[in-house]
Predict the 3D structure of the following.
Amino acid sequence: MHAGPSPFLDACRGRPSAHVPVWFMRQAGRSLPEYRELRGDRSILEAVRRPELAVEITLQPVRRYGVDAAILFSDIVVPLAATGVGVELVPGRGPVVADRFESRADLARLRPLDPEQDTGYVLDTVRALVSVLDVPLIGFAGAPFTVASYLVEGGPSRDLARTKALMHGDPSLFEALLERLADLALASLRSQVLAGASAVQLFDSWAGALTRHDYERFVLPASRRVLEGLADLDAPRIHFGVGTGELLDLMARAGADVVGVDWRVPLGSARERVGPGVSLQGNLDPAVCLAGAGPAEAEARRVLAEAEGRPGYVFNLGHGVLPGTDPDVLARIVELVHDEGRTDAPPGRGDPREHREP
Amino acid sequence: MHAGPSPFLDACRGRPSAHVPVWFMRQAGRSLPEYRELRGDRSILEAVRRPELAVEITLQPVRRYGVDAAILFSDIVVPLAATGVGVELVPGRGPVVADRFESRADLARLRPLDPEQDTGYVLDTVRALVSVLDVPLIGFAGAPFTVASYLVEGGPSRDLARTKALMHGDPSLFEALLERLADLALASLRSQVLAGASAVQLFDSWAGALTRHDYERFVLPASRRVLEGLADLDAPRIHFGVGTGELLDLMARAGADVVGVDWRVPLGSARERVGPGVSLQGNLDPAVCLAGAGPAEAEARRVLAEAEGRPGYVFNLGHGVLPGTDPDVLARIVELVHDEGRTDAPPGRGDPREHREP
């Protein structure tokens, strides 16, 4: 099990660390050739259900890149699928739900999660991983709103029109739906931490589609139910979304130790919005990696410069690794962040920026 | 031709008006039954090329809703298509380009627009419209970046990965592409104003996918080339994008009289960001209209309250009317905005808010 100093956990807690820590959303799977070879023609959900595969897929990027954290190979729909909701991950499209959530009667299809019974394979994977990893393992779940959007839309959607129509057309039903999904996420995250995960990330990928008003009324209470429900555990809580520039303060208030920031908001503005005591994670545009190592390194340096060497920052992409990303580019970014990313008072050394003064 | 007082033009110029003006992006076409009947099985581009149809489609929403401005029935790809770039509007998908823009050689496929020669039908439509309309006509064009994204991606894209890869991989080629597209937009907009349009809107629908840094380096100079090139004409310039909260100040600086704001940014924050002397347009979430008249009216009232009765505000959706929107809901919103939307010093009457004091 991971023990000893961790730049990742230090940054999550706002403490200075030896170097700026880095990991990548979707580092496990997708663009790695060793992943594609290992998974073969199994579906993602099949691979998740086989701990020996899920362990190996989780470890692959840690070995290859030397990142500062591992993230469990799983998917945000796993608890839904495990409780009997028909959902598939369609390649090139995303989660597709067989029967859309449309009315109050559909609430009956959502039953509570019994983590050991329903997702024992996930917990077996977590336990096996923490026995071999020498970096922290991040567990995760889909946030109530984002999971609700897949249930209501039936799949990925550009404008979340059905979701918003239900939210405004039948607010109390929407609240009831989010409450159930909050309990699902909370049960899953608690079980992952109790099995050994060192930190958790709550993915509210599509919350950025909302007005502040709707976020505050509908989403904040549900996400707070999840994040506050983890407050007694010693695991930093990362709260992530895309296009959430206007919501960063609210996402912090939901009970986050770390708020994810996509590439749209400069880190300095993001820091002002989340306020003191909350760390940041992000904010390299994943599309830049497709332009090759040179442009990606230049952008990574720009992001590091905007982090200003302040503690409480985890380098990451602003969203997941895009399909087609060259793993060598990601490897170069890890090297660069480790070599050049400093925090103000790294333990045992002076501020390296002093040495650059003429 | 439109003459006399116009609440829409007053608001664009930051002047108080008798009521808050309102129009809807995509008010012409899409969700109107009379539009679907008139267009029949013609493609959108075919309908655009027939002035008698385009005139009638432009007028339909003005008659039905009593909005304060008409917007030309056309499409942002019209100048591209008119100069020989193979592009189609695929129903349910959007613009699809036959041969993607990939290398410097593709620049040769982009020739300058001769508005009368290439898009005489658009100008015929404008001239016919201004002879019958009693509200201002808004002309429009696609902004260089958004049009470039369709050329580079080959169609709509969730992450604009190819566009950003080209931007960072070959910056000078990308700049050359945007410069050509700026000239295309400018030529088209100038011709529309000279034919009688009272205002123009530059649609940079996907600029919100960019970092501030990329926007400032690549997009701002090109969009400024368009907007500043219209400065000598007496037509307010509206600059619109989605998810552009972090870019609003830059979009104003590009030379806009009015900046479009989607629903993510509260109007008060938007006003701070664009600074004095620039009007705002937006910011009702179009998805709310799908929930029915009650919820849509409640949200419209919330938006009006956030406008605080200050002059320089045009009520609109934060993006286009969604397919499936009930026209009656839009009609109710127009009524509500006209009845309840006031600016601080409407000509010839006191501040109506005074009458609400106890």
Observations:
- The longest strand of chain A covers residues 137-142.
- The CA atoms of residues 271 and 336 of chain A lie 23 Å apart.
